[in-house]
From TrEMBL:
Its EC number(s): 6.1.1.21
Chain's gene name: hisS
TM segment ranges: none
GO MF annotation terms: ATP binding; histidine-tRNA ligase activity
Ligase listed as a keyword: yes
Stated name of the protein: Histidine--tRNA ligase
Family: Belongs to the class-II aminoacyl-tRNA synthetase family.
Species this chain originates from: Candidatus Olsenella pullistercoris
Length: 438
């Protein structure tokens, strides 16, 4: 039997409805904040991710699925490496949405000088070659927003407020969410801070794991996220980002917190929150569903240098993304079925006979034209078999068309719960059904 790739999932039934609901709620809420939807290609040039996300990140170094056209694949095997491929021949499946959206903003000049900002949201599959486990997939789905051209700390606060509102509208109890924030500084103060952390790790080199020693060279701040307990204990005494901010970054962070306080949004400051992507500057944040055991359900932050890294003019930016699969798991744990109930339907049953079948065909057309989800039999079942099938579909009403009904120009409407039956004129069928479905 053919099998799906490890770490991927098929979306159908209630799970698909859950994914669609996440998009519906996003469209409504993010729309109120002025965001429009964007879709960028699932494959981009590798450089888009390398420049944006950062060469030294795990996402770029270990997790990106590379894409090679069939024609080039054998060349690549023969060459042994990709050094002779042109940049446009080196492609990858997107591991996240931000770099591609920023590339699209630059390429399509969506934030021309002095013009309105670009406020974009997306709902897309992402691909990361991680070890699959609960809430960690190789193809997963994110809903995210990117806001280009806003430097004011009010924008950071609004993004976070919108994110928390989004979680609530999806069904999370506010108390079940833990919002963690931090500021990572900017191009003015972060380089010196990174050096301090690097020096700290090297001072404790004999206590740190091999990975952290490597991190010290390429990306020292990642040591705060080491899975090794002892490394984390050591890093608890390391210099912290909020204590090493320049004046502007400190003022920005204080202002974001004031706005959050004014909006009554509860948060925890975690001075070790560094996030796994290199483009962040200043505000970063993550949200966890307490006790769900699926890791962060969403995260984001400001990235004032990213547009330049993708070849555009200096433009501030910020955004976040949330993970559909983790949200569905966390909500299920709280007893909330994100996909809700299957939509109500009506079943049209008829007795055998050409005239009855033709009447059933007409009834289906009339009901569907009125927007009613309508099912019927397409396998020549007996009337009893059709009733059984109506139950399987969860039909609320059954329209019954026998020879007598058709001759009299009526249809029998059977309530599938109370089993009460009434006759209605055939011409009024859709209205009568709509009235009963409420
Ligand atoms: P991220 O923290 O890498 O940020 O991912 C955002 C969310 O995607 C996570 O909080 C998690 O819910 C979900 N997620 C990540 N990896 C997986 C996985 N392997 N399986 C299932 N779910 C996963 C970003 O991607 C940034 N682009 C967010 C952002 C937008 N920052 C600014 N703008």
């Amino acid at each position: 039997m053919a099998q799906k790739v490890q770490g991927t999932e098929d979306l159908y039934g209630g799970y698909m409805r859950a994914w669609q609901r996440m998009q519906d709620v996003a469209r409504e809420l993010f729309g109120a904040y002025g965001f429009d939807m964007i879709e960028t290609p699932a494959i981009e040039q590798v450089d888009t991710f390398v420049h944006g996300i950062g060469e030294s990140t795990d996402v770029v170094r270990k997790e990106m699925f590379r894409v090679v056209s069939g024609a080039l694949f054998s060349d690549l095997l023969a060459l042994g490496d990709e050094s002779r491929l042109k940049p446009r021949q080196r492609m990858a499946m997107r591991p996240e949405g931000t770099a591609g959206v920023v590339r699209a903003v630059v390429e399509n000049n969506l934030v021309p000088q002095g013009a309105a900002p670009a406020k974009l949201w997306y709902a897309e599959a992402m691909f990361r070659g991680e070890r699959p486990q609960k809430g960690r997939l190789r193809q997963f789905h994110q809903v995210g927003v990117e806001w280009l051209g806003a430097s004011d700390p009010a924008a950071d606060a609004e993004c976070i407020i919108m994110l928390m509102e989004y979680f609530e509208r999806l069904g999370f109890a506010r108390e079940s969410l833990r919002l963690v924030i931090n500021s990572m500084g900017d191009a003015a103060c972060r380089p010196a801070y990174r050096e301090k952390v690097r020096a700290f790790i090297m001072d404790h080199a004999d206590e740190m794991c091999e990975d952290c020693l490597e991190r010290a060279q390429v990306n020292p701040l990642r040591a705060f996220d080491c899975k090794n307990d002892h490394c984390r204990e050591v890093m608890a005494a390391a210099p912290l980002a909020p204590d090493n901010l320049c004046e502007e970054c400190a003022a920005h962070y204080a202002s974001v917190k004031r706005y959050l306080d004014a909006a009554g949004v509860a948060y925890v400051e975690d001075p070790t929150l560094v996030r796994g992507l290199d483009y962040y500057t200043r505000t970063v944040f993550e949200v966890e569903a307490v006790g769900a055991g699926v890791g962060a359900i969403g995260g984001g932050g400001r990235y004032d240098g990213l547009v330049e890294l993708e070849g555009g003019k200096p433009t501030p930016g910020l955004g976040f993304a949330v993970g559909f699969e983790r949200i569905a798991l966390a909500l299920a744990e709280q007893g909330v079925e994100l996909g809700g109930e299957a939509p109500a339907c009506v079943y049209v049953a008829c007795t055998p006979g050409e005239v009855e079948r033709a009447a059933a065909f007409d009834a289906c057309r009339a009901l569907r034209a009125a927007g009613v989800r309508t099912e019927a039999d397409y396998q020549g079942r007996s009337l009893k078999g059709q009733f059984k099938q109506a139950d399987k579909f969860g039909a609320l009403l059954c329209v019954i068309l026998g020879g007598n009904e058709v001759a009299a120009g009526v249809a029998t409407l059977r309530d599938m719960v109370s089993h009460e039956q009434v006759e209605v004129p055939f011409g009024r069928l859709a209205d009568e059904v709509l009235a009963r479905l409420g």
